[in-house]
């Protein structure tokens, strides 16, 4: 895994450099009087609204309102509310996510400033500033996606905090028993099915059909963390353990929808795969997100996956909840 870990280490360094850009590392001192009052994945954009309607504002909106990858329908990362700076009063200061765009000749250079918990708690305020439109476009090109990812990761962190106080005790106990791991799954996942090195937890029968699967297999080489190897292993587990009403019906992946990347979770190397699942010879399907990592104590790969079945409804909050849950997974070496 040496090459993969080298790539992973470089990615972590890049994130660290961005977080120090133009700010104080997020260690903003403030007097916080109340908790945040906005909904999850709601973003307040503070900038000149006339500017926002123009070409440069459209470029910003295109970046901020990117769709979440791997969903069956178009769903942006955030619900966006925009106001003029003069209207930024106490009503709007309760937002948990605030993006300020300030283009003014008072600045010599373009940059990004990061502050936390200034008016309420929790709260993330990111200011993108530039002396003119041209330098702002360069800043947006270089740092726009990082800014979006910071807001997304902040929301995932808040979701993780919530899950640690409201989780499925059944899943926690069973995952520890079968895999020696710890995870905080959504509290509605209380129906369990087990197989050989396999666990399925579901909220089937409830309004929102949430699911999580856990399985393990021996770690052999770096090829474990290629997309093709992941698909083959996953399909082999699902074909046996997640079948439909008939033998010809089993869960598989839509390969055209898949994206794979390497990320850091609590300092550990993780392969993230997301996209769409489908039930062969049936009409069922939906989005999934999967985390694979090495259990070095037992020389095996642990895979944790969340997937949703909720036809004709929005799935952003649900898939993000499952993603946050995956990030609470603790392997035997880190518990």
Stretches where pLDDT falls below 50 for ≥5 residues?
Answer: 2-33
Q: What is the name of the CATH superfamily of the largest domain?
A: Mog1/PsbP, alpha/beta/alpha sandwich
CATH topology category name of the largest domain:
Protein Transport Mog1p, Chain A
Count of folded domains: 2
Taken as a percent bin, the fraction of beta residues is 25-35%
Strand runs, count? 15
CATH architecture of the largest domain: 3-Layer(aba) Sandwich
Question: What is the CA-CA span between the terminal residues?
Answer: 22 Å
Specify the number of helices.
Answer: 7
Protein described:
By secondary structure, this protein is an alpha/beta fold. It folds into two domains: 17-163; 169-326, Protein Transport Mog1p, Chain A. It contains seven helices and 15 strands. It has helices at residues 2-19, 49-53, 55-64, 133-163, 169-179, 227-241, 316-326; strands at residues 34-35, 42-46, 79-83, 97-103, 111-116, 120-121, 124-130, 191-195, 198-202, 209-218, 251-253, 259-265, 268-279, 285-295, 300-309. Strands 8, 9, 10, 11, 12, 13, 14 and 15 form an eight-stranded antiparallel beta sheet that branches. Strands 3-2-4-7-5 form a five-stranded mixed beta sheet, covered by helices on one side. It has a two-stranded parallel ribbon with strand order 1-6. Helix 3 packs parallel to helix 4 and helix 4 (133-163) packs across helix 7 (316-326). The longest helix has 31 residues, at 133-163. It is elongated, with a radius of gyration of 21 Å. It starts with a helix and ends in a 9-residue tail after the last helix. The relative contact order is 0.13. The model is unreliable at 2-33 (pLDDT under 50).
């Amino acid at each position: 895994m040496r090459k993969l870990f080298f790539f992973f280490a470089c990615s972590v360094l890049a994130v660290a450099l961005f977080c120090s850009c133009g700010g104080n590392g997020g260690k903003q001192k403030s007097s916080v009087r109340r908790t945040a009052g906005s909904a999850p994945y709601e973003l307040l954009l503070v900038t000149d609204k006339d500017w926002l309607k123009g070409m440069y504002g459209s470029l910003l909106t295109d970046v901020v309102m990117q769709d979440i990858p791997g969903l069956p329908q178009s769903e942006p990362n955030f619900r966006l509310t925009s106001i003029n700076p003069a209207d930024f009063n106490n009503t709007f200061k309760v937002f948990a996510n605030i993006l300020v765009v300030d283009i003014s000749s008072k600045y010599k250079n373009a940059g990004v400033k990061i502050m936390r918990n200034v008016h309420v708690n929790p709260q993330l305020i990111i200011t993108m500033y530039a002396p003119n439109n041209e330098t702002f476009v360069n800043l947006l090109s270089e740092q726009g996606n990082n800014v979006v990812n910071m807001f997304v990761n902040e929301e995932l962190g808040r979701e993780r905090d919530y899950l640690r106080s409201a989780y499925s005790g059944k899943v926690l106990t069973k995952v520890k028993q079968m895999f020696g791991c710890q995870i905080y799954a959504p509290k509605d996942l209380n129906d369990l099915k087990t197989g050989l090195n396999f666990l399925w937890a579901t909220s089937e029968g409830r309004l929102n059909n949430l699911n999580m699967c856990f399985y393990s297999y021996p770690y052999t080489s770096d090829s474990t963390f290629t997309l093709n190897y992941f698909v083959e292993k996953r399909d082999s587990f699902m074909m046996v353990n997640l079948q439909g009403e008939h033998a010809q019906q089993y869960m598989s992946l839509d390969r055209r929808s898949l994206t794979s990347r390497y990320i850091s979770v609590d300092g550990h190397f993780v392969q993230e795969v997301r996209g769409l699942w489908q039930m062969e010879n049936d009409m069922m399907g939906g989005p999934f997100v999967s985390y694979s990592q090495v259990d070095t104590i037992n020389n095996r790969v642990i895979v944790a996956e969340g997937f949703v079945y909720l036809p004709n409804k929005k799935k952003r909050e649900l898939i993000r909840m499952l993603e946050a849950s995956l990030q609470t997974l603790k392997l035997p070496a880190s518990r």
